[in-house]
Every structure is written in structure tokens, then in C-alpha cells.
Design brief:
Blueprint: H1 12-18, H2 25-32, H3 39-46, E1 51-53, E2 68-70, E3 73-75, E4 79-81, H4 94-104, E5 109-111, H5 119-125, E6 131-135, H6 141-153, E7 159-162, H7 172-177, H8 203-211, H9 220-227, E8 232-237, H10 240-248, E9 253-256, H11 270-281, E10 286-290, H12 296-304, E11 309-312, H13 314-346, E12 359-361
Parallel strand pairs: 4-11, 5-6, 6-7, 7-8, 8-9, 9-10, 10-11
Antiparallel strand pairs: 1-12, 2-3
């Protein structure tokens, strides 16, 4: 009998539908879950529908350019890869495969402190440095400083400080599964560190409670600037006053983020916070956004509302699970191509042509 024909996904939703076939239940629940009742998780995705596009007509879009610059670095499209922990749960090459996919697409990957491949391995996987390092601050400030020094030595170009996780949000699917890394998988950047195995609790929740510094304030940015010359990106901002604080304390960029709905359930969707943050920053720092982005039109809306670029999270993991490096790259290609078409149909030949006149918020779907 002829072999069954494999159908290649044509959008990010189809990758998400295929991913459960390639992941353990524990890994799938860890990647897909949100905090509490998962209200914010759902809202992140639904909120994009409340913003509608107002395309320009009869504009020459025969040639289009998706390139932009983030923190002075040229990238081929305004789509970065968000920091995500434990990528070897999706594929044995984990973060190394993701970093290669990012480099092939000419964009930046943000590596999590809690990666399952070391920052040095990820650095070696890229010929051109297209990488930032996401920092979780440990109570052991010496360990934190060592991570920062290693990142700078390995050619990472920015430090991305996660500001919305003094403790880990309670993700009930992880608690039910007593989430822990399987045997043979480790916290690659934290030699000797182990995730606790807790009956009826997420091992990651316990790790945060025991190891990470819940006492951080804005003054930490000053300490971080004193130990590294890398630009600082603050991730996890949803308010104008916090955005202003970030700028005041030296942030070069801000990521409007609610941690993918995984921290405070009931927090507003990121797109609903974006305009407020952009206005508060007033051009003194770059603004990026993540959360629920699944279509090229979502990227177009984010750029129109003032984001310099977006960060893509879970869909990259679905691609990695389904097809390894090639799958992760294909996810990025699909979103890039959708953005390219959306730009053409909206009358935007370049990223610089995208402005606030292209988008309006409607009550319906809000």
C-alpha cells in the first residue's frame, strides 16, 4: 500500500494541532498551560481580534522590505524568538536547534536562563551573533553575576531581565503532573543545580521559591549596569508607570509581556497594554511585545501600535516538536510570509510605512 502522504502545516495553528503527537503529556502541559483559570492565556490570543485594520489603497507595494533594527542590530524581519525554558522536552537539540533556525531567518533568539542547552553551546551554534540572554536573578548574587559574565563572553548582545516573576505563577496542570525534568536533562546554565521533585507540586514552582530573588526592585538595574556593558531589556511590563521606571533606570528596551499568561491570571492582554507603554516611553527606549501572536496580521497590528518588533513563543516550540530545527524555521517562515502579505494588502512597502492610522480598536470581540 502506498505510504500515507504527509501534509505540511500551512499556518501556526496547524503546528499547534500536530504538536501533541510529539510531546509527552508533562511536556505538552508545561508548554501550553497558563496560570490559574488560564483567563489571561485565552485573552492574549482573543484580544488581537478586537483590533481591526484600515488598509491604504493604490500604494506601490511591488517591492517590500521587512527588515528593521532592534537595539541597533539589523534583522531581516520584526519577529524575534521569545525566551522559553526546557526546549529539549520538545526535541533533543532543543535551544541549539532554535538558535540555528533564528540565525537562518536573520533574527534574534532570546535564550532562557533555564535552558537545557548551555549558553556556550547556543553561541557556538550561530555563525553570526543573533542572541540575547534572558536573566532570572538568583538569591546567590555571585551566581547571577557569573551568568551575566558568561553571556557577555559568549557574544550575547543584550540582557533580558524578566521583571514579572518574583515567584512562579501557579500552573495547575504542572502541579497535577508534579512537573520535573526527566532523567538525563539538566539546567544547563546552572551546573549542579537541580529541580526539586515535589509530590503534588511543580518542581519549577519549588525551584523559584527556593532559589530566585523575590526582593528585586528597580535599583537592581543599576547593579546590572555596573557589572555588564550589555544593553538591558526589561521584560514583563504592562503599565505606563513601570515603563517610565524602566527608562529612568537605564533600560534600552521594554517588552510588553504577561509571561504568556503564566504568571498573574487576570492580567490584561499585552496588546491592550501596548499603546500605554509606547506613550510612556516616548521614544526613550524601544518597545517590543509578545503574547498570543499567531498571524502575520497580529504582527502588523503590533507594529502599527508602536512596537519595534514582536517576540514569538509557543509556536516555535510546536515547530520544534514536530520537525526539529526545520520545523522551528518553518514556523518563522510562515509568520514572515503572512506579515509580508499583510503589509502588501495594507499598503505598506516597508516596516517604516506601518503607522497607527492602519489600526482601530473595535468593541466587537473585545
Amino acid at each position: 500500500m502506498p505510504s500515507e502522504r504527509r501534509i505540511k502545516p500551512i499556518n501556526l495553528h496547524e503546528y499547534e494541532a500536530l504538536a501533541p503527537q510529539h510531546l509527552s503529556k508533562m511536556a505538552l502541559d508545561y508548554y501550553a498551560s497558563g496560570a490559574g483559570d488560564e483567563v489571561t492565556l485565552r485573552r492574549n490570543r482573543g484580544a488581537w481580534k478586537a483590533y481591526m485594520l484600515r488598509p491604504r489603497a493604490l500604494v506601490d507595494v511591488s517591492q517590500r522590505d521587512l527588515s528593521t533594527r532592534v537595539l541597533g542590530q539589523a534583522i531581516r524581519m520584526p519577529i524575534l524568538i521569545a525566551p522559553m525554558a526546557f526546549q529539549c522536552l520538545a526535541h533533543p537539540e532543543g535551544e541549539v536547534a532554535t538558535a540555528r533556525a533564528a540565525a537562518d531567518m536573520g533574527t534574534i533568539v532570546v535564550l532562557s536562563t533555564l535552558s537545557t542547552k548551555s549558553l556556550e553551546e547556543v553561541a557556538q551554534a550561530q555563525k553570526e551573533p543573533l542572541r540575547w540572554f534572558q536573566l532570572y536573578v538568583h538569591r546567590d548574587r555571585g551566581l547571577t553575576r557569573h551568568l551575566v559574565e558568561r553571556a557577555q563572553l559568549a557574544g550575547f548582545q543584550a540582557l533580558c531581565l524578566t521583571a514579572d516573576a518574583p515567584l512562579l505563577g501557579r500552573r495547575e496542570r504542572d502541579a497535577r503532573n508534579a512537573f520535573a525534568l526527566p532523567a538525563g536533562m539538566e539546567l544547563a546554565n546552572l551546573a549542579g543545580a537541580e529541580m526539586p521533585h515535589e509530590e503534588g507540586e511543580s518542581g519549577l514552582f519549588a525551584y523559584f521559591a527556593r532559589q530566585l530573588d523575590a526582593g528585586l526592585t528597580w535599583t537592581f538595574l543599576e547593579w546590572l549596569r555596573s557589572v555588564s556593558s550589555l544593553p538591558i531589556v526589561v521584560k514583563g511590563v504592562l503599565r505606563a508607570d513601570d515603563a517610565a521606571q524602566a527608562v529612568e533606570h537605564g533600560a534600552a528596551a521594554i517588552i510588553v509581556s504577561n509571561h504568556g499568561g503564566r504568571q498573574l491570571d487576570g492580567a490584561i492582554a499585552t496588546i491592550d497594554a501596548l499603546s500605554e507603554v509606547v506613550a510612556a516611553v516616548a521614544g526613550k527606549a524601544e518597545v517590543l511585545v509578545d503574547g498570543g501572536i499567531r498571524r502575520g496580521t497580529d504582527v502588523l497590528k503590533a507594529l502599527a501600535l508602536g512596537a519595534r518588533a514582536v517576540l514569538l513563543g509557543r509556536p516555535v516550540l510546536w515547530g520544534l516538536a514536530v520537525g526539529g530545527e526545520a520545523g522551528a524555521r518553518h514556523v518563522l517562515e510562515l509568520l514572515r510570509d503572512e506579515l509580508d502579505l499583510a503589509m502588501a494588502l495594507s499598503g505598506s512597502a516597508t516596516v517604516a510605512d506601518i503607522d497607527a492610522s492602519l489600526v482601530v480598536r473595535h468593541r466587537e470581540g473585545a
